Amino acid sequence: MRTNRRNFIKSSISTLALAGIPVRFNLISKEHKINFLNDKMKLTYKKYDLRLKHTFTIARSSRDFVPIVLTELNHDGIIGYGESSPNVRYHEDSESVISFFNKLNLSKFNDPFDYVAIFDYVDNLTNGDASAKAAIDIAIYDWLGKKMNVPLYKLWGLDKNKTPYTSFTIGIDKPDIVRKKVEEAEEYKILKIKVGTDSDKEMIDTIRKVTNKPIRVDANEGWKQKEVALERIKWLKDEGVEFIEQPMPASQIDDVKWLRDKIDFPIIADEALTKLEDIPTLASAYDGINIKLQKCNGIHVALKMITLARALNMKIMMGCMIESNVGISAAAHLSPMIDYADLDGNVLINNDPFNGTKIIDGKLVLNDNPGLGVTPI
Amino acid sequence: MRTNRRNFIKSSISTLALAGIPVRFNLISKEHKINFLNDKMKLTYKKYDLRLKHTFTIARSSRDFVPIVLTELNHDGIIGYGESSPNVRYHEDSESVISFFNKLNLSKFNDPFDYVAIFDYVDNLTNGDASAKAAIDIAIYDWLGKKMNVPLYKLWGLDKNKTPYTSFTIGIDKPDIVRKKVEEAEEYKILKIKVGTDSDKEMIDTIRKVTNKPIRVDANEGWKQKEVALERIKWLKDEGVEFIEQPMPASQIDDVKWLRDKIDFPIIADEALTKLEDIPTLASAYDGINIKLQKCNGIHVALKMITLARALNMKIMMGCMIESNVGISAAAHLSPMIDYADLDGNVLINNDPFNGTKIIDGKLVLNDNPGLGVTPI
Fold this sequence. Notes:
2 copies of one chain form a homodimer. The first copy, chain A, is an alpha/beta fold.
C-alpha cells in the first residue's frame, strides 16, 4: 500500500507534469484532491503518513507516525513541491490543513512571481494554520528557484559549504534504549535531548556514560517555577550542555529575563516565538530564537525573522517538525545563515517520499539542482 | 565634450561587453580605470558629472553640478551597472570612491552569486564609503537580475503597478524663481521643500499662493531647540504639510521623542539613520525612516531596513541624492514596498547617461527588462 502510494505520486502526477503534460482531473485518484487556482496555476495536495523509526516522546505526548500533507504548485510547465506537517499544539491536523486549502481562492493571482501579494493574502486569510501556509510558501519558492534555474541557497546569495552540522534528537526512553539510540546516532556531532520531565537526570546520565558529544536541550516549557528552572539549568551547564530551548512557559517572559540575569547560558525562544513582531520583545529575555518553517508560515517569514534577529544581535537556530525531505530542504537552504541547526526531522522516519538534502557525517549537504533540489522517490 | 563622453560609454565599453567581447585594457581611456577582480569577473568605473538644471540650495550648501562614479560589473557575458553619488556630509567625493575601489580585492570571489559574502567583505573593509559600497551592490543586483532574466521588482515578488508617486523637490530660492519651479513641477502630485532656514515662511507662503498640492518637508537637522521645532511643526501642519524629515540634529533623539509626544505629525528619520542597527532605537522617537541607497551601502541593507522598520510598525520613505537613472532605478524597483518616495534625483539633471525608470504624471514607472532595466544613452 505504501509503495503504491509512493509510486502513484511519482508516476501519475509528478512525472507527467514535469514533462510539461497538463495534469488532468481524471488522472487524479480520490485521495489526491485538486484545488484549481486558475487556468494556468494549479495547487494539488495529498495526505501522507510519515512513519517514525522510534516512538517519539516529548514533555506533552508520544507518537508512532505523523500525518503530513504534500503540495504541488503547477505553473508554466514547472512543479514546485511543498509540505505541511501540522502540529496539534497549534490546533492543526491534516484535516485542518486541507480545510485551509479549500478556503483559498488564488484566482486573482496569475503568476507565482506575485509571491509577496500571495503570501500576504494567504497569511491573512485565517489566524493560525501556519503549517498549511508554509506548504504554499515552500511550493512557491521551489517553483521560483526552478523558474530562475537556481538552487534556493544561491538565490539567497549563500555559500552551500557553510551549512551547519545538525543536532540529532534522542527521545526520552529507558536507559538501554537511550544507549542504543546514542550508538545509532554515531554520525551526528551534536545530540539534542528533550528535558523538562522527571527523567531528565536519568537521560543525561545515561548519555554522558557513553559519549562526550555536545548536547543541546529543549525543555518545551517544562519548568513553571523560575527557581526550579535556574537550578536545572545550572546542572545542565555543568553537564556540558550548549544551550537550552524554552525552559519555561512562553507567557513567562519576565521569569526568563530573571533567569538570564542569573546565569550565563544561552536561552533560545521556541514556543515563545509565534510571529515576526514577537522578536523585539523576545530580545529582552532570550539570547536567540528557534525558527521553524511549519510554525512561522514558511520561508518568507523566516527570512524576515533572520534579518530582525540579526539586527537585534540574537542567535538563530532552525528547528523542524517530523517532516519529509521537502520541508527539511527548505530549511537547509536557509541554514548557511544560521548558528544552530536542528534539522533531523526526516532522519527519524523510514518512508521519506522525497530525495534531496542529505546529511553526511552530521552535516547538511545541499545539491545544486534548482529550487529545493528535491525529487519524488 | 559631454556627448563624446556619453558615446564613449556606449560604444567602447558597454556594447562590446554586452556582445560578449572581453573588454581589453587598451580600449579604455585614461578616465576609465579598470579594477581587475579575477579572470572572469571585472569591475570597471568612470567618473561622470551630473549637471543640475537649477542651482540647488539646502540648509548646508549650494551647488551646480554633482560628480558621480559609474560602475560596471562584467561577468559571464553580462554587465551589471552601478552608481556612486558621493556625499560631502559623509566625507565622500569621487576621489574617495575611487580610492575605495582601489582597496578592493575581490579575487577570492568567483561569482556575483556569492553576494552575501561579497557585501560582507565590502561593507567591513572600511568605515564609511557608503556610496562606493552602494555602487558595487547595485551593479551586482543588476547583474543578478539579468542572469536570472527577471526585473528586480519581480525577483523581490513585487507588483510594479504599486510604485508610488514621487515628490519633487523645490529648492530654496527667491519667490519668483520658486513660483517658476512650482509651475515646472506641474506633473508631480507632491512637492518637497527644504526647511530649517530663515526663508521657510517665504517658501511655504509662495508655494501655497500657487498650489494646494501636498507638501513634504525636510529640515535637514535645521532646528536645534525643541521648542522652536515644535512651533515650526505646528505651523507646517496648519499649512497642509504631510510629514517632516529630520527636524532636529540626529544626536538629539530625546528631543525628537519629546516632539512626538507633543504633536500628532509624522516625523521621519533621515540623517539619524546611518545603519541597520539604529532602527530599533529610532522607533522610540520617529514614525518612519528615510532609506537612501547611497547612504546605507545599497540594496542589500535597504532590504533589511525595510523588513526591520515594518516589524517595528514604522513608515518607510526612500530618498536619493542627485543620481543618474541607475541609482534611481535601483530604488524604484524597491518602491512598491514603501510608503513615500522622494526619488526625483535624476529629474533635476539634464545629462542623464542612462535610460530606465520613467516618471509619468509623477508616478515611478518600471520597465520589464531584466535587472535594473537601465541602458546607456
